[in-house]
Amino acid sequence: MAVPKIVGIETEFGIMVRGTADWNPVSASSLLINAYVGTDVGGLDDRTTPVAWDFIDEMPGADARDLMAPEFALPPEVETHLVNAVLTNGARYYVDHAHPELSTPECRDALSVVLFDRAAELILIDSMVAAADALPDGQEIVIYKDNTDRKGNAYGCHENYLLDRNLPFGQIINAATTHFVTRQIYTGSGKVGSELPGVGRKEVPYQLTQRAEHFEEEVGLETTLKRPIVNTRDEPHADSQKYRRLHVIVGDANMAQVSTLMKVGTSAIVFAMLEDGAYERPMPIESPVEAMHAVSHDLGLSKPLDLIDGGTATAIEIQWDLLAQAQAWADRFGLEAVGEECGKQVLERWERTLAGLEADPDSLAGSIDWVAKKRLLEGFMDRHDCDWDDPRLRALDLQYHDLRPAKSLAARAGLEALVDDDEAAVAVTEPPPDTRAYFRGRCLQKYADSIVAANWDSIVFDVGDDPLRRVPMLEPGRGTVDHVGTILDESDTVTDLLDRLGA
Amino acid sequence: MAEREQVRRNAPKPTEEVAEEAPASSESGEALKAELDDLLDEIDDVLETNAEDFVKSYIQKGGQ
Prior knowledge:
The complex is a heterodimer. In chain A, about 35% of the residues lie in helices and about 15% in strands.
């Protein structure tokens, strides 16, 4: 059986300080996060110092291909000196590579990811407001949920899926590559123009994704240079004998909640199918990097992609075939691995989305980012009688991703909401009930003064005179409200808690 | 071409519900246009002035 597809996403946000030319992104990101964790909502009661991240298990240089890794691959550095906080909803909020980054807590299904991704947006919005007090008059920090400055610099929105360690990595590479290249037709956030050298506005006035052009390799360990479609970072943050965490770096950050649901939901299904041996027609694509760029550039959704086994198929055709296999898998194995209700919704949306893309992409302007943005751009060109060269279109493209409620164009685009903001406001401080993030979040709410540090798979407690005690959390599906809710409710002190846990 | 057809044959047919959702009538077309007009009014209000400088000044350091 497929292991539960526990999943989380990490988003690096674009950052600007307006009102001054003299600023640097690392300091601005630190100020932003410190301002947030110092407020009532982000801070832990009246503590002024948030609980710090524990780096003991960070090994981003570990490669899933083991000894296959080429010697020139540079392991990413772990930046331990920058701001790094754990929030009471189980999320991690930190400075990474000159960007503020927020990792959602571990979620049990794609709908839960949508909820915590919206909560992340609310956290960033609160952070901008909190930072305003710390900045001189006339200065403002502005956050963009996008993936590129459109000048060649990209930053990511990564997905992480819990996989069975027994699944051979070669199988993952084949299935993931085909899905990642073709899912772009509904996961793209849209971008005006191209960032590839020598590709002009005439050839690519607009494209489906922000990220596609920043991928140059098929498989590899890198995340910041020569980015690969399949990333081999092997850092499970869980029992490494049983699990793998697939670190997916190809996706766009989405403003449309339906795009996020589809991006995470379809991918979770593909990996669950693979684990169940039910992915029978992998349709490997010839030259995946070129295909990735080509799909992103293909506004007509009609470009045939060469398949390794001969013949061609368009991205939509490959997605239809994947969907047919997913439906057969669901009939045979059930949807438990991806969450029953969520899985049903994803399969239904998947079908509706492909039908819409095939018949009339514009009909998806309320659900898919690249379509929603294109509608605004084309409406703007009609109204102002301008073309793709007009700088206002690039401003519109950028401002679609502006998170300030007063400025965000995505917030005005009529996008369908899958979670309401009251629910998301709760998720700003409350962890999901159905993964180990529940234990992390509740402990931070209740025993923050006794917590020295926390990370994905452990919490370190200071119980006074005794040595520090580390509670490991190597099972992402344990530590839920069902497992530990009562113990947490009934333990008034950390000593009580550790006694009852037998830790 | 044969391969493409084979791929398509495996695909599920869109359900009735899906077909019904496509906006077909001119009435809904008018409503959509009015909605877009309102949206474009709002964009004209909030869009950054001096677009060229705004876009030029958006420079990020690369990340992951």
